[in-house]
Amino acid sequence: MKSRVQYQGDFRWAGIYRLAYKPEDRSHFDRISRQTLFAGLADFDCDLRYFDLKPDGYSTFERHQYVHCVVIIRGPGQCVVGQTISDLEPFDIINIPAMTWRQFRANRDDHLGFLCWVKYDRDRPSRPTETQLQEIRANPYVAQFMRI
Amino acid sequence: MKSRVQYQGDFRWAGIYRLAYKPEDRSHFDRISRQTLFAGLADFDCDLRYFDLKPDGYSTFERHQYVHCVVIIRGPGQCVVGQTISDLEPFDIINIPAMTWRQFRANRDDHLGFLCWVKYDRDRPSRPTETQLQEIRANPYVAQFMRI
Fold it and tell me: Helical H runs in B1-148?
């Protein structure tokens, strides 16, 4: 791990590999890329990632056991966490409790980008079953917001 | 912990207490304030803090056992980590290994602000002894940069 990871502009960092934006395919995630800025070490067991959503992109609608915290650095956009839909602007902070459905959307004609710290050892996210989807869609605001 | 911590502009967040800037007193730290944006939980044992240094401010020259990672969000400024002095611009990332002397300085006529993730359980930082100071000052660049 280099002691300094230099920002190069346009939300890219020197020497950091960026996973390709997934092409528009109406999958469960869309137009989102990832860069890992800090990889977990034995004595600091966390990863720092930067996610960037192109306009109209969205992250997977999912949940997991691990708690995490997101700092928006590019926007605006919106997210849903549980039953709550929030507007997002740069430097807003979103805390995501365990086992809470959430999704980020770049639905404001701009990129949405955020830093996301997670534990190195973490469970894999799960997507809703058909039964869970029916429950989630009982909230019409969430039903309208979500992209599956 | 609120699910959303809204940014209010001017590097302040809604509902977050800011520790006062220390008055200029030529102590071991100077003109620096702290806001805790995410407080460690049982299932995510990290704290996220925002530190802001007023122009000419500096953090304590210190080291500790725990590794941590800093994301600059306001600048420019400079830091020393070990023997390396680096220019800092917003979104640069600084990784600080265990037991490595470091100090941040707002020495570019502007505020320097950074996000800092640390483990909830961590050792207290230590400052150099007189003997250690002599060793550190053997590097003339570091000797000139540091503020004690």
Answer: 130-136, 140-145
Active-site residue flag, B116: yes
Whether B95 sits inside 8 A of A68 (CB atoms) is no
ipTM of the complex as predicted: 0.90
Q: Which of A92, A98, A115 sits opposite B7 (nearest CB)?
A: A92
Taking only the tens of pLDDT, chain B with its 148 residues reads: 678 899 999 999 999 988 876 655 556 777 888 898 888 776 788 889 999 999 999 999 999 988 888 999 999 999 999 999 999 999 999 999 999 999 999 999 999 999 998 888 888 889 999 999 999 999 999 999 999 8
User: Under a CB-based contact definition with an 8 Å cutoff, are residues A36 and A44 in contact?
Assistant: no
CB pairs under 8 A between A and B: 112
Give the global pTM: 0.92
Q: Does B89 touch chain A (CB under 8 A)?
A: yes
Residues 6+ apart with CB under 8 A from A129: none
